[in-house]
Amino acid sequence: MSQPQTAITPRRDEDFPEWYQQVVRAADLAENSDVRGCMVIKPWGYGLWENMQRIFDGMLKETGHRNAYFPLFIPLSYLAKEAAHVEGFAKECAVVTHHRLEADGRGGLRPAPAAELTEPLIVRPTSETIIGASYAKWVQSYRDLPILINQWCNVVRWEMRPRLFLRTAEFLWQEGHTAHESAEQALQETDLILGLYEKFARDYLALPVITGEKSEAERFPGAVKTLCIEAMVQDRKAIQAGTSHFLGQNFAKASEIKFQSREGKEEYAWTTSWGVSTRLIGTVLMAHSDDDGLILPPRIAPAQIVILPIAPKPETRDAVFAAADKLAAELRAQTAFGEKISVEVDKRDIGGGTKSWEWIKKGVPIRIELGPRDLEKGTVAVARRDRGPKEKEFVPNAEFVAKAGAVLEEFQAGLLARAAAYRDQHTVKIDTKEEFYAFFTPKSSDKPEIHGGFALAHWNGSSAVEEKIKEDLKVTIRCIPFNAPEEDGKCILTGEPSKRRVVWAKSY
RNA sequence: CGGGCUGUGGCUCAGCUUGGUAGAGCGCUUCGUUCGGGACGAAGAGGCCGCGGGUUCGAAUCCCGCCAGCCCGACCA
């Protein structure tokens, strides 16, 4: 029987979206549920999320934030308080209208007409308004500020075109909501959080991201200023991996968050909000994985090392299993990144090759095979997920235990370097309209190949230009990057003068 | 919500044009041989053919309606 050359079909270069779906499935991360647009996150995928939560939650705590929890349901009238906010979210809200069911006389159930709510509730698409209502009660004086609260929760946005992790009707995220005495302090908070997001993405998810500000067209509904981190994934599209919003006094006015200032005057508070979601899982997948499946950064892998006992003969089984457990215990006593190494021993009675391939597809950084011959020689067979699937190295047992942490750290650094090199390779300065259009136009239009990337090009600052380019090419401004030097140039479309290049790309 | 396509064991699909008692591969169970890289053989389990109606002696197959999913457009973390 002839095996496919790669564990995942199709390959990335053949059909990237389909490849993505197959990797999600092969890695056992999640599956579609019977409810359209909603996903079941399976233990391996949820383990990733738990690690992300633990890490980022720690970063928030260190910077003075505390967790709280606000209701899932929001009175319809709350959403209506901020005009731009309504505009942005009204189209995708789930609405609760009844509080009881009754028999419909045909063996089924229906909402009881007598139990209709006087005011419908919406399922939160985000919580600015309901949290604002609480803050309005909590804040009287400048002495009550700042309020620095975060919540981990689910939200619902009724999406038309769901894709596992990237865009689902229900998703998990954290949303931070802060209120401050001055615009400066709120802006500082917005910057602080963006910095945390960048660090989290780079140091833990191995994602090199561009930080910057969104153009008006891409701004959060109701925000004065939206900052973001943008990553490039392997089809060279951009993906917004996290956003931090300066809300000015828009939501404070809508929710009546007022306080008496140091000067004794009544003033509106200045608020921020910011979030990252389970979309990060999809981002990590698309940034690092290959044609054999998922590749996980060790710092977030639910298991960093898996031990596969090779017990061909029943009589060697007990000895091999015992040795595997012993090795696991020794490895767990070691550290990587200053934390205990996580190790799993897979004793399931299935074919050795099949088992190996399962873990390859799940993206475990290091696989250890331990068989009878190793016991005799005191070695282990080490395979790394960032090398070929059949490459393995026989290493003295003690030596591997001693250097396991260092290997994981090197693995993590390698992923980041590879992703950064890929991004840099596909980030180009473009100065003419012709070149710009050529860059973003695939050679085969019916089945577009992977093309494009990040284009750094000048822009006159007008939304009309953005709109035109979006219409022509489906390309948008991902951000106005912070690190870009000022330079004189001409708008890519109009030729008008421009002071700075912005990042253009197709996006998720 | 508009346009195109598809609904058949857990999964991927054939069968439908030309109606005649449900098929394959993978997966699953058991037994045996294997086992240091997706093993092989044998025997099994599993399906109101998306739902409802119609035509017919007879419908997975033809007709009508509905529902769901996928792809393409407008929206989005």
Automatic annotation (TrEMBL):
Keywords: Aminoacyl-tRNA synthetase, ATP-binding, Cytoplasm, Ligase, Nucleotide-binding, Protein biosynthesis. It catalyses: tRNA(Pro) + L-proline + ATP = L-prolyl-tRNA(Pro) + AMP + diphosphate. It is an enzyme of class 6 (ligase). One of its GO terms (molecular function) is proline-tRNA ligase activity. One of its GO terms (biological process) is prolyl-tRNA aminoacylation. SMART domains: ProRS-C_1. Its EC number is 6.1.1.15. Pfam families: HGTP_anticodon, ProRS-C_1, tRNA-synt_2b. It comes from the Bacteria. PROSITE patterns: AA_TRNA_LIGASE_II. Its main location: cytoplasm. The keyword Transmembrane helix does not apply. Residues 45-297 form the Aminoacyl-transfer RNA synthetases class-II family profile domain. InterPro entries: aa-tRNA-synt_IIb, aa-tRNA-synth_II, aa-tRNA-synth_II/BPL/LPL, Anticodon-bd, Anticodon-bd_dom_sf, Pro-tRNA-ligase_IIa_arc-type, Pro-tRNA_ligase_II_C, Pro-tRNA_synth_II. It is found in: Cytoplasm. The keyword DNA-binding does not apply. GO terms for cellular component: aminoacyl-tRNA synthetase multienzyme complex; cytoplasm. Consists of three domains: the N-terminal catalytic domain, the anticodon-binding domain and the C-terminal extension. Homodimer. Catalyzes the attachment of proline to tRNA(Pro) in a two-step reaction: proline is first activated by ATP to form Pro-AMP and then transferred to the acceptor end of tRNA(Pro). Belongs to the class-II aminoacyl-tRNA synthetase family. ProS type 3 subfamily. This is Proline--tRNA ligase. It comes from Chthoniobacter flavus Ellin428. The lineage of its organism: Bacteria, Pseudomonadati, Verrucomicrobiota, Spartobacteria, Chthoniobacterales.
